[in-house]
Amino acid sequence: MKQTIQLVALLLLALTANAQTAREFTLNLTDDGAAQMVCFLPATPSGRAIVGVPGGGYSVLSNGHEGVMASKWMNQRGIAYFVVNYRLPEGDRTKPISDVEQGIRIVRDSATVWGINPHDVGIMGFSAGGHLSSVISTHSPFEVRPDFTILFYPVISMDERVSHKWSCRNFLGEEGQKDANLVREFSTDKAVRRHLTPPACIIMASDDRLVPPVTNGVQYYSAMRNAGNECAMFIYPTGDHGFGFGPWFKYHDRMLDDLGAWLDARQTPKADAIRVACIGNSITDGFGIDMADASGYPAELQKMLGDKYWVKNFGVSGRTMLNKGDWPYMKEQAWRDALAFKPDIAIIKLGTNDSKPENWQYGASFQQDLEQMLKALPTTKIYLCTPIPAFKSTWNINDSVIVNAIIPIQRAVAKKQGAQIIDLHTLYANDGDKMLNDGIHPDGKGARRMAEIIAAALVPKK
């Protein structure tokens, strides 16, 4: 009798697990079907989706325990799960890259039909698939870049001396291994970009003998942390390489708890959130503020505006409005990403670095360049911020040029283009005690003060 009850319980458990998946099907990612995506849609969707990328050293696909085996756990959590069976490079690394990009594109394009929030699409890769996932996270265009990244014991370096030799050779080709620039380009710890590379969770075993953790996964974590980007790392004492979602992994249950907790803690924008792009120089970027993605002015603005808004930081330190300046903003990846973000609201705060003599010698072009930026955002409500005061003349930044030349041009362009002015120079004038020692950059309190001023302009009190 006892055995019968246990058997029935196990059967019910299996049926319950299967019931979490409402639909399973396969799509071709290439016309010839050489690349495919296996899709697992949950019975009760949470809105989240994850695209899985199996490992296999770029020579085979380990799409069992590093692929479909994760589907039940994902669907039980309401996560739509997709396993990309990508083409192997065979001398052409664009094959696997384009296959995974196409998978993400299909998921986002089908978001409404499949019950997915297009702003909550992550990627999860294993070993060489972890490398491929990190390539998509650091190199791919904004439209197909994931919102978060999960990397299991990833190959990160393409230097075969400190990485998995065959993953390096199969991805770059033997000739590519001789090209130092190519090795560096696709060693993805070198490609992490502040604010632009999505949050990451890295999972490894300390005794991994195939892909050295210290020169691969740990390096990606370090690059993310040094950039101030959100990143977590879980290293288990044993497990070697390739444990994936296999129940034989000694720390399997603990790993799932850690990964689940990390996913649960993620702040996800609503599908219909008002998109706010914060465009600017180091003051927007959050220079001098540790973990600026959590404490810079755009992050503080997000907290103040709430979940009806989606605020993204596109600031880059040292950049100018002037296209002839030493570091023009409109030549940056951040500018291309800001346009691809398709913001409903753009907050532009540039001009501080333009006041330097070496840049303002081209000041005659400031109005033209500013108008070029505004015209590139034709469907966006634009708030043009005057620079905060330069309380010191550090780095040759000249407050007189800001007041007497730059701000008048900003006001004229705002009037001509229908933008709104936020007069930070006046409204922040009494906040010199909220600055770093350089007198140019706000500290944490200053970032909150800036966010208060900007939030009041965006959502005036009734």
Q: Summary?
A:
This protein is of the alpha/beta class and 462 residues long. It contains 18 helices and 13 strands.
Characterise this structure:
The protein has 462 residues and is α/β, with parallel strands linked by helices. The chain is built from 18 helices and 13 strands. It is 37% helix and 16% strand. α12 (297-305) packs across α18. α16 (399-417) links the parallel β12 (381-385) and β13. It is globular.
Secondary structure topology:
Elements: H1 2-19, E1 21-28, E2 36-42, E3 49-53, H2 71-76, E4 80-85, H3 94-109, H4 111-114, E5 121-126, H5 128-139, E6 148-152, H6 165-172, H7 180-185, E7 200-205, H8 217-227, E8 231-236, H9 252-264, E9 274-280, H10 282-285, H11 292-295, H12 297-305, E10 309-315, H13 333-340, E11 345-349, H14 357-360, H15 366-375, E12 381-385, H16 399-417, E13 420-422, H17 424-427, H18 444-458
Parallel strand pairs: 3-4, 3-5, 5-6, 6-7, 7-8, 9-10, 9-11, 11-12, 12-13
Antiparallel strand pairs: 1-2, 2-4
Helix pairs in contact: 3-5, 12-18, 15-16
